[in-house]
Specification:
globular, mainly alpha, single chain
């Protein structure tokens, strides 16, 4: 239903008459790949906070392989996958994975302040997330993955910006980054569909004008995420095999 909602402007009015830029699309993919390299680093530091001492190659492999679980409705399969991969107490791995998701959500919230469209709501969400994070595990080490999370979202926002430029859309970096990060937070909160399918696209299309151009942008971002997920999954296997 979310996809139908996101695509309705295209069903109603047809595809927009826009000139596609392959170079901007390729740049968007490359930047998203760069952003994805930070995710296992964040996981590596979060694991240490929960006294799960794993090698960095194991962190890379476990993150990218367990990320397949996002494509099964309900994010629990991503948690189960990571528990199955790592030879550590399942309760600790499960808790650390949940903590990692909270870190990513808090980072998205902090970064969303670049475009304070709903300032009081944004500040409220950030306050609640940080309160939960630091009440659960009060550690100075938490600042490292939290800072990395903000950097991650800044790169993701840049990728989204070049995606919009690939369709010749006239949105600025702050606005497009805000929309994209908020759509991801919503998919974390509502883990009902595979990898947030439909939820992200519906929110992106709605916040960007709910017209054929915004719907096209939403679908193109999904294509980029799919491409990057496949590439980084292959990278995870290769890194695990050849890293010492």
């Amino acid at each position: 239903m979310g996809l139908i909602f996101a695509l309705y402007p295209i069903f109603k009015n047809g595809l927009p008459d826009i000139k596609f830029s392959p170079s901007s699309f390729l740049l968007s993919v490359l930047i998203m790949l760069l952003a994805y390299t930070l995710l296992p680093v964040i996981w590596f530091f979060v694991a240490q906070i929960f006294v799960i001492f794993i090698s960095f190659p194991d962190a890379v492999f476990s993150w990218y392989l367990s990320s397949i679980g996002r494509y099964i409705p309900g994010k629990v399969w991503q948690f189960v996958g990571r528990v199955a991969i790592l030879n550590h107490p399942s309760g600790s791995v499960f808790s650390a994975t949940l903590y990692e998701h909270l870190i990513l959500m808090a980072g998205a919230g902090l970064f969303s302040l670049i475009f304070p469209k709903f300032l009081y709501i944004q500040l409220g969400i950030i306050f609640v997330l940080l309160l939960v994070i630091f009440t659960w595990k009060f550690s100075i080490k938490t600042l490292i993955p939290l800072i990395l999370s903000v950097v991650y979202w800044s790169l993701v926002g840049l990728s989204a910006y070049f995606t919009s430029r690939a369709l010749n859309l006239k949105f600025g970096y702050p606005e497009i980054s805000f929309v994209y990060s908020i759509s991801f937070v919503a998919s974390y909160v509502l883990p009902l569909t595979p990898a947030g399918l439909g939820i992200r696209e519906g929110i992106i299309s709605l916040l960007m004008g709910y017209d054929p151009a915004s719907s096209s942008f939403a679908i193109l971002t999904r294509l980029i995420i799919l491409i990057v997920d496949i590439i980084m999954l292959a990278f995870g296997f290769l890194y695990k095999r050849f890293a010492r």
